[in-house]
Amino acid sequence: MTATPSTTTRRGILHGIRSGNGFASILLRTVLKRRDVKVGLGILIFFVALDIVSVFYLPYNPRAPVSLGGVNPAPPSAKFWFGTTDIGQDVFSQWMYGTQATLLVGFLAALLTAVLGITTGIVAGYINTWDEPLMRAADVILTLPALPLLIVVASFYKTTDYTVALLIAFLAWAGMSRTLRSAVLSLKHQAFVEVAELSNVPRWKIMFVDMFKHTLPLILTYSLFAVGGAILTVASLDFIGVGPVTDYSWGSMISLANDASALLDHPSAWWWPIPPGLSIAILVTGLALIAYGLEAAFKNM
User: Fold this and answer.
1) How far apart are CA 217 and CA 14, in angstroms?
2) Is the pLDDT of residue 248 over 60?
């Protein structure tokens, strides 16, 4: 359901984790020097800014017909930048409004995935008695067909943005958990851990302060992939009509345009499905550029 760092890259990141360079300085150098990261950050900042603006301002009500005097769907014009739908709704306003649901699910699912993956991965790697049960649970999760299972659940139960984010996280945490476990296994015999244990530092502090700090590059990379995977997953659910119960999202816009045969009619209403479709592709690509750029930086440390 989500992309993950390659084996070679994970080794590079772990090498970077074990080195003495600070994560903040590495991140800063990466942003300043790598073009792919700067492009990805620019894309992400644009859509986050669009999301914030849409909370306070929309050109038109995305639900209400605003073009009643002409032929609909109407092509882009000075009044309706992205044209209108088959019932006269402004596509540009819907596109702006749809950013809210798309980013909410994406970032919330990534946050929940990170919480589950970090907790189980660090505990399994550091405490031997928890290793076997947690990793067997991760194996079970990894065998589940994520998207078909989500479709089945969403078909029988009315879902919201929050429940879909929770379901995505439940099916996505295992990959991060297994990778963090491997990182912790390679770290827990190093000097800083042994010194902490001899100094009677509490176990929880070693795991969730020291280990967390040393695996932060890996966590950040996985989290970026998780955001992109969640955005694609919820768009897929919306497209087939079993997504969260929201007014409009990018996936539901494409679904409505498809139901109205927007690309099949002659002339086609290409302006209706293309903006949300391109936005999904561009945003997920931007997140991947940041993630792969950070991977490359840690690999070369």
Assistant:
1) 9
2) yes
